[in-house]
């Protein structure tokens, strides 16, 4: 790869960046494909439509008050368990790598908060039985990360124009998944349980265990809201890059990542 095109001269730093971003692009692609397959199999008996105004009852169906777990959803079964464990291991590795290996950029701390919030959501949703949340949220995030790291890999390889096209696709995907569909999901988790409780007597047992449910509710929502704030922050950076591209002052193919790093290109 690095000997083609008249022996392109890649510095050791650029080779490191190509490998780093290429790895993440492939990893997110695998996570997205496997996640969609698991979601397809597991959602055979429950459905969630993020494009509809209807209640997202799929998140709460099959909850019963017949066990000692306060009406908990069914525990992870089938491919959910290995998928969740694999994704959790990947994100734990990302957190460690972010400190020890990855190129440090100006939003280093934002990534630390993002990784810790993601790990918290994975842990809480797995332990408490809310894996349906994770099965929907993970693909929403993975599909944009594939394009982001793909664009950066192509950019560092010096393939001008292609990186810009991929970046524009990433921008549209980020807007739709993280600023439209993800907030709809957060709204469903934030408000709809109370509406369901008021409208459907079947879920009255929630009120009996409200101290426990409220504690879980606060932890999950805190992590979800933190991720949403980070989405808005990163989309601001995306708009900054687009503004430079459209005005001609800063080209994606020329400048690449808008975030500064600790080393010179």
Number of beta-strand segments: 0
The residue fraction in helices comes out at over 70%
Q: How much is the radius of gyration in Å?
A: 21 Å
Shape: elongated
**Ends apart, CA distance between termini:** 20 Å
Element-level helix/strand string: HHHHHHHHHH
- Strand-residue proportion: under 5%
What is the average per-residue confidence, as pLDDT, rounded to a whole number?
Answer: 80
Largest sheet: none
- Number of H/I helices: 10
Class by alpha and beta content? mainly alpha
Please mark out the parts with pLDDT under 50 across 5 or more consecutive residues, or reply none: 1-7, 64-71, 259-265
Key traits:
disordered N terminus, mainly alpha, 265 residues
If you had to describe this structure to a student in words, what would you say it looks like?
The longest helix has 38 residues. By secondary structure, the chain is an all-alpha fold. The chain is built from ten helices and no strands. Helices cover 70% and strands 0% of the residues. Helix 3 runs antiparallel to helix 4, helix 4 runs antiparallel to helix 9 and helix 5 runs antiparallel to helix 6.
Give the topology.
Layout: H1 4-7, H2 12-42, H3 80-100, H4 108-128, H5 131-156, H6 162-190, H7 192-199, H8 205-208, H9 210-247, H10 252-255
């Amino acid at each position: 790869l690095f000997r083609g095109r008249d022996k392109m001269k890649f510095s050791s730093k650029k080779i490191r960046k190509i490998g780093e971003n290429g790895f993440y692009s492939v990893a997110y692609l695998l996570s997205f494909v496997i996640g969609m397959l698991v979601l397809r199999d597991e959602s055979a008996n429950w459905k969630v439509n993020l494009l509809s105004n209807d209640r997202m009852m799929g998140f709460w169906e099959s909850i019963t008050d017949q066990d000692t777990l306060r009406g908990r959803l069914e525990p992870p079964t089938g491919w959910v368990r290995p998928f969740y464990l694999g994704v959790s291991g990947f994100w734990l590795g990302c957190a460690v790598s972010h400190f020890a290996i990855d190129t440090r950029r100006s939003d280093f701390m934002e990534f630390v908060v993002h990784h810790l919030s993601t790990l918290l959501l994975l842990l809480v949703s797995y332990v408490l039985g809310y894996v349906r949340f994770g099965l929907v949220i993970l693909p929403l995030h993975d599909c944009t990360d594939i394009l982001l790291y793909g664009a950066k890999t192509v950019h560092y390889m010096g393939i001008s124009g292609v990186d810009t096209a991929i970046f524009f696709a990433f921008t549209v995907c980020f807007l739709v998944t993280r600023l439209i569909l993800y907030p709809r999901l957060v709204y469903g988790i934030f408000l709809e349980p109370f509406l369901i409780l008021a409208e459907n007597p079947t879920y009255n047992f929630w009120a009996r265990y409200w101290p426990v449910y409220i504690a879980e509710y606060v932890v999950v929502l805190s992590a979800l809201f933190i991720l949403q704030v980070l989405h808005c922050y990163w989309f601001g950076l995306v708009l900054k890059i687009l503004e430079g591209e459209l005005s001609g002052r800063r080209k994606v193919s020329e400048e690449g990542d808008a975030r500064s790093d600790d080393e010179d290109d």
